[in-house]
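Researcher: Here's a chain I'd like modeled. Treat it as a single chain, no partners, no ligands.
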Amino acid sequence: MQGVTLLGLPTDSNSSYLRGAAEGPGAIRKALRSGASNLTAENGVDIGAYGILVDAGDLELTETPADVDRITSAISRERERGHRVPSLGGDHSVTFPTSRDVGDVTATVAAKLVKELAGRMAEED
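Model: Modeled as a single isolated chain. Structure tokens:
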């Protein structure tokens, strides 16, 4: 089974209005471990079982532009290990570095779809 690595991104330095996203990782972890929830997925898999769910803690961020590469590197390392990496917390500025390497896959899939559609359109003519 593919592992899941939780990665906290405690930053809200780029929040355009209110602060608070930096507190997200701790609040989410608290909710995950509360008595009101459990770690069993809807398909019955206990993601709390040893080895499936790994909490990598919070990434040490510097609130500088260097954080983009720091976040990308941390997520890429876990994906190379075959893990899915949901990030916890963070303001809107973490969207790019958390999905940066997904763009390569998306572009490849999109190119294949365009090529296939072009082929189908040529067949119809």
